[in-house]
Every structure is written in structure tokens, then in C-alpha cells.
Design a protein that fits this description.
Layout (H helix, E strand, L loop, with lengths): L8 H18 L5 H16 L12 H9 L9 H8 L11 H22 L3 H4 L3 H7 L24 H12 L3 H14 L6 E2 L17 E2 L16 E4 L4 E5 L9 E5 L1 E6 L5 E6 L2 E4 L12 H7 L8 E3 L8 E5 L2 E6 L19 E10 L4 E12 L2 E12 L6 E8 L3 E6 L8 E2 L17 E7 L4 E7 L8 E7 L5 E8 L20 E9 L2 E14 L6 E7 L2 E2 L5 E7 L4 E6 L7 E3 L2 E13 L2 E15 L2 E16 L2 E6 L3 E5 L2 E5 L2 E6 L1
Antiparallel strand pairs: 1-2, 3-4, 4-5, 5-7, 6-10, 7-8, 9-15, 11-12, 12-13, 13-14, 14-23, 15-22, 16-19, 17-18, 18-21, 19-20, 20-23, 21-22, 24-26, 25-28, 26-27, 27-29, 28-29, 29-30, 30-31, 31-32, 31-33, 32-35, 33-34
């Protein structure tokens, strides 16, 4: 074309250069837009001649340098952007998961472009890329679909960037890297046929350059999914925590907790998603039908009432999108780790009990909030524990609203003993009480005032006639408590996923709200959640709540009776200073659990504690520790995060800290 239209080439070049010049003058440098802009600039640079061909000295090399390392005020170079956006410890990008995975893919695409067109290995200049790619599986629920916080449409984990790292490894002779990412690709895309064309010629200006396909090495087998995730993963870059007890699609449990740090975040407080039986049963609501440009996004989807969280006085809020309101992780067991730093010797690393406790200062109401979440394993599955404490720092609490949204088409709410509750229609949840306008998006409201313990069953009825999937919630009743059952707008984040057992798009979201009048610190929201499938039924036979003996008024107790005859006794307190007692248990810990079978202990767990006494067992530490003592067959095993003294089974021993289960 240059030979045929030589007289016009200066005009064409001038027009092309105008675009990167405008981008560098007016672009957005500190998030995913920067790397999208870099793709435009790179494409245009490839079409230009050398710098000396132009009077202004701006040719191919000039614009490639803008992409690679030169930083202007509105267009950062790839390394500058990576230094700003990636967490150096975890490799997680500082945006919501959907955007984060796209950015990782764009960086790996640039790795391929630098390899092919510039003959340079970009991973040498930006080594965090090699950490960011294998970090993305941490987003995965056991069904291999990513978590949905912020502006995300969850779906299966992308695998393009694994392939890109294989190409890079092969070009530069990095066998260990090729083996690693080939195994990851085959683990997350088992149907991968062994080759994929990289040609991008769909007419998009950014994708006009050709990229090579690749044939995978047939001698490299797929890896195990469990080796690419952590039982506890925490990233402060986006204020996000996950805990999981495995990656079995049907059996395993996982929750995802986040607040709002980074870009494309919502005002959601300590918001949780719960997974069970192949689905994200307690999901994040999504973005909205018009994405983040619509009124539904500004008024509902980005606000507290659309999330599984606690809203204070109807006013909890803070800036969305580029938001900087993080939680503080107080305690967690197992300790957070990245996949490459955890003990991979056995699946024992996925423990019988895991927990976390997180603190958040809600800025609008100036409320202190602490959320304790736990996964407790049981034969064939398990259940979640959720203890949410909330109070305004200077008092004057009007109310605290505990919101929980679940997939499904039917919601049944009764007293825990099965007796009916006298619900009546209401429109109390609305902006008319000087509340957030998001309340007015909730409809078909019914309410009842009761201090009884509650049972709520959220049921998914699959279109195909397959077994129903249910989430059962038991919640402790409290004086001054109102219960609402209602409908909310569709779970828009999942509306594009056609693999769900019913049409999420257009189906209202089942909504439960518990309103505590006054503070919710000494009267916290104490709940147990269990996912189940009809035909199999619940593992839990019954849940009772009790108030243990304590000098403080914030301690809570839960008694869970399983259908196999096992019983769990759970205690939670704000600190480990005051002793909390119930029957044979006496503890100084923020969280503890005793499991009995045939009247004898089979599991004892102390979370961030100093003392645990029960059933002839005496555990003491000089500083707060997480200690687990568990029977397997006829043998007992222990872990402890600090040296402690254990009296048990007629033996007294002082043991050193160990993260690996050791035989007693």
C-alpha cells in the first residue's frame, strides 16, 4: 500500500499518530484503561516508520517506548502501571475480579507481543507477571467460577494467560515455567485440544496484529486444582479474603469476604458470598442492567442493601468505583498463604475448622463492625457460622439491618422449631425513613416482630427437573428484632451465565433482612448456613443458640446437632481476656468449637485464645494462639500457632508451634 499511495502516507501517518497523542494527553493512567490505551498505541506504532521519518521525531520506536517504560501524566508505561496496580506479595491486581483477570490477560498478551515483535522478554522487566497469572485461581469457587465482588460478571476462570505464559516459556527456553503453566491450563481447561490459534483478525483495531498458535507438550499432565489455591487467601490490595475447605464441586464450601479497596468497588461493608452444592448460593448482586452508567447501579447495585452485609441506621455508604475503605483482618486460621508458599504435603491442609475475624469502621455512621466467619467440616459436607457484631462508636444507634440475598425461587421463613410466624405486608423498607434509596428497590415485603430463633429455607428449583438445591439459615432471635422476607432485583452479576439451573436473568432475588433496634453488639446477628440437595437432605438435625456465662455481654453460643449423632458446641467472644463458660467448656478465646461423638470429644479448636478446658482436655498458651486437637480413627493430631501446654489423655506436654498436623 505504501508504494501505491506514497503521496498519501504522510497524511495517513499524521492521522494515526493523532490517536496516541490524544491518549497520552487525556488518558486514564491508574487502572485497566491504561493498558487498553497501551494496546491502541502499540498497534499504531507497528504501522509507523522509524522516528527519523517524521519531522516531530515520533515514529515506531517513540510510541513503543511510551508503551514500554516512558510515563507521562496520563499514560503510564507498562512497568509503572504494574508497580502501581499489582500486589507484590500476592500478585492480585487492584480492581474487582472481572477487571483484574482482563488486565492479567492484557499483560500476558503484551508478553507475547514483545516476544514476537521486539524480541524482548517482558517478564524480565516486569517479574510480577509470573506471580499474577498463577494467583488468578484464588478467585475460584469450587465450581471453577470466579467470585463476584465489585463490578464483576462471574464466569469460568480465563485460561488464555496460561497459554501465553507457555508460549513465552518455550520462546526463551524456560522449561519449569512451561511445565507449570501447561499443567495449570490443563487443570482449568481439561477439554483443551492441544493447540489454539492466536490469530486475531476480527476487525478490531487493537487486534490486527497476528499472534502465533501453540501446541502443548503432550508429556505434561494437568495439575490438581487444589494445589493452585489456598485454604485461606487474603489480599490487602483489594481488601478481600477467602476461605475454603477443598475444591470438590459438590461437597466443598467456600466464602468470599470483601470491603472496598481499589477500582470498580461497591459500597458494601463487610460483604460475603457463600458457595454450596455447585452454585454461588449467596451471591453478590452485580453491576446493573446498564452497567455502572445506570441509575440502578448508583441507587441499588453498588450500595449496602444489595449485598450480604449490615447497614447501619439505613445510611451506611461511601464512595464507590475507586474506593479506599478496607477492613482489618484480625485473626484467621489457617493463616493466609499464597499457593506456592503453603504446605502441599497432603490435603490435611484443608482443616476441619477454619475461621476469620475482620474489623471495619463504617464511615457514614461511624460504626464499629466485626464479622466472624467459619467453615466447619462434617461428613459429606459442612456448614458456615456467621457472627456479625455492629454498633455506632458514639452510641445513638437506631437500627442495624442484616441483609442476606440468596438464589432461588422460593423462600420459607419460620420459627426454628417449625412453628409459623405471623408475617404481614409492609412497605417499611424504603427511602421514606431518610434511608438510602436502595431500600426502595426491595419489594413484596412482609415483616414480623419476634425474638424467636429463625429458620429460613432458600430453594433453587432447577428447570430440568433435577434435585432442588437449598440454603438453610438458622438465626438466633433477639429482643428488639424484626424479620423481613422480600424480593430484590435480579442478581444481575450472574444474569449472563447460562449454566445456572434456572434463568437468573429476570428472576427476583430472594431477600432476608433482620433488623435489630438499637445496637447489635451485645445482640449480634448469629447465624448458621448449610447448603443441601433434596433427596440427600440436611446434615444438620437441629441448631440451638444459648448465652454462655461471661463477664461481658457480647459472648454467644451455638449448639449444632448433626444427623449422624455428632454435636458441635461453639463459643464466640469479642476478645480472649474474659473467660467464657458453658457446661464443661471454659475458654478464653475469640472462637472455640468442641465436637462430641457418642458423648466423647473428637475435635477441639481454640481460635486466638489463651485457655481451653473441656472434657478432660486443658490447653494453655502464654500468647494468643490457634490450637486444633482432632481425632482421626484412633489417633489424635494437633496443630498450634504458638508454643502451648496440653494436658490430655493422662499426658501433659509442652509443644512447639506447628502448622502441620502432628500425632499426639
Amino acid at each position: 500500500m505504501g508504494a501505491r499511495y506514497a503521496d498519501r502516507m504522510p497524511l495517513y501517518a499524521s492521522a494515526l499518530k493523532k490517536m496516541p497523542d490524544v491518549i497520552t494527553m487525556n488518558g486514564v493512567p491508574h487502572n485497566n484503561w491504561d493498558i487498553i490505551q497501551a494496546r491502541f498505541i502499540f498497534s499504531i506504532a507497528l504501522a509507523l516508520d522509524c522516528n527519523s521519518s517524521y519531522e516531530d521525531g515520533k515514529g515506531r520506536k517513540y510510541y513503543l517506548e511510551v508503551v514500554a517504560r516512558d510515563s507521562t501524566l496520563r499514560q503510564w508505561g507498562l512497568k509503572t502501571l504494574a508497580d502501581y496496580g499489582f500486589d507484590d506479595g500476592t500478585g492480585i491486581w487492584s480492581e474487582s475480579p472481572g477487571y483484574s483477570c482482563n488486565v492479567v490477560d492484557d499483560y500476558v498478551d503484551f508478553v507475547s507481543l514483545f516476544d514476537r515483535y521486539l524480541g524482548k522478554d517482558l517478564t524480565a522487566d516486569i517479574p510480577v507477571i509470573e506471580k499474577a497469572v498463577p494467583a488468578t485461581p484464588q478467585y475460584c469457587f469450587p465450581n471453577r467460577k470466579i467470585v463476584g465482588f465489585g463490578d464483576t460478571h462471574p464466569g469460568p476462570l480465563r485460561t488464555d494467560y496460561f497459554l501465553g505464559m507457555v508460549q513465552n516459556a518455550r520462546r526463551h527456553g524456560k522449561w519449569a515455567q512451561e511445565e507449570k503453566f501447561t499443567a495449570m491450563l490443563r487443570a482449568f481447561d481439561p477439554g483443551f485440544a492441544g493447540t489454539r490459534s492466536g490469530s486475531k483478525t476480527d476487525g478490531n483495531w487493537m487486534d490486527l496484529y497476528f499472534q502465533e498458535g501453540v501446541q502443548l507438550d503432550s508429556t505434561i499432565a494437568g495439575g490438581r486444582i487444589e494445589t493452585y489455591v489456598s485454604p485461606t487467601f487474603y489480599d490487602p490490595n483489594v481488601s478481600w479474603l477467602v476461605q475454603r475447605n477443598g475444591m470438590d464441586v459438590r461437597r466443598s464450601l467456600m466464602y468470599s469476604l470483601n470491603v472496598s479497596e481499589g477500582n470498580h468497588q461497591h459500597a458494601n461493608g463487610l460483604s460475603v458470598e457463600f458457595y454450596g452444592k455447585g452454585l454461588t448460593l449467596g451471591p453478590d448482586a452485580g453491576i446493573g442492567k446498564s452497567l455502572y452508567a445506570g441509575a440502578d447501579y448508583a441507587e441499588y447495585y453498588s450500595q449496602f442493601p444489595s449485598h450480604n452485609t449490615v447497614c447501619v441506621d439505613g445510611i451506611s455508604a461511601y464512595p464507590v468505583m475507586d474506593s479506599h475503605h478496607a477492613f482489618k483482618l484480625l485473626h484467621a486460621y489457617p493463616q493466609p498463604s499464597t499457593a506456592d508458599r503453603r504446605n502441599l504435603d497432603s490435603d490435611d491442609y484443608f482443616r476441619g475448622v477454619s475461621y476469620s475475624e475482620s474489623y471495619f469502621r463504617e464511615p457514614e455512621s461511624q460504626a464499629d463492625q466485626i464479622r466472624l466467619l467459619s467453615i466447619i467440616d462434617a461428613a459429606g459436607g459442612g456448614y458456615y457460622v456467621d457472627v456479625f457484631r455492629s454498633r455506632k462508636a458514639e452510641g445513638g444507634d437506631r437500627m442495624h439491618d442484616y441483609f442476606y440475598h440468596n438464589l432461588g425461587q422460593t423462600l420459607d421463613v419460620t420459627a426454628a422449631d417449625g412453628s409459623p410466624l405471623n408475617f404481614t405486608p409492609t412497605e417499611e423498607l424504603s427511602f421514606a425513613g431518610a434511608h438510602l434509596y436502595a431500600y426502595s428497590y426491595i419489594y413484596d415485603q412482609q415483616t414480623v416482630r419476634t425474638d424467636k430463633d429463625i429458620r429460613a429455607d432458600f430453594t433453587v428449583h432447577p428447570d430440568s427437573g433435577r434435585a432442588d438445591i437449598r440454603m438453610t439459615m438458622w438465626q438466633q432471635g433477639m429482643p428488639g428484632r424484626k424479620i423481613f422476607r422480600a424480593l430484590s432485583p435480579e442478581t444481575e452479576g450472574l444474569s449472563r451465565d447460562r449454566t445456572y439451573p434456572y434463568s437468573v436473568s429476570g428472576t427476583p432475588t430472594l431477600t432476608f433482612e433482620a433488623r435489630q433496634e438499637g445496637e447489635a453488639w451485645t445482640r449480634p446477628f448469629v447465624s448458621v448456613f448449610e447448603p443441601s440437595v433434596s433427596g440427600e437432605g440436611n446434615l444438620i438435625a437441629n441448631v440451638d443458640f444459648f448465652t454462655p456465662e461471661s463477664l461481658g455481654r457480647d459472648a454467644v453460643g451455638i449448639h449444632v446437632k448433626l444427623k449422624n449423632g455428632q454435636e458441635d458446641w461453639i463459643l464466640s467472644s469479642v476478645d480472649s481476656v474474659r473467660e467464657v463458660r458453658h457446661e464443661a467448656m471454659s475458654v478464653r478465646a475469640v472462637y472455640s468449637c468442641l465436637r462430641r461423638e457418642d458423648g466423647k470429644p473428637v475435635r477441639l479448636f481454640m481460635g486466638h485464645g489463651l485457655l481451653f478446658k473441656a472434657e478432660g482436655v486443658d490447653i494453655r498458651t502464654e500468647r494468643e494462639a490457634d490450637v486444633s486437637l482432632q481425632r482421626r480413627d484412633t489417633e489424635w493430631y494437633y496443630t498450634t500457632s504458638a508454643p502451648c501446654t496440653i494436658r490430655f489423655d493422662g499426658c501433659k506436654r509442652k509443644v512447639e508451634a506447628t502448622d502441620r498436623p502432628l500425632k499426639w
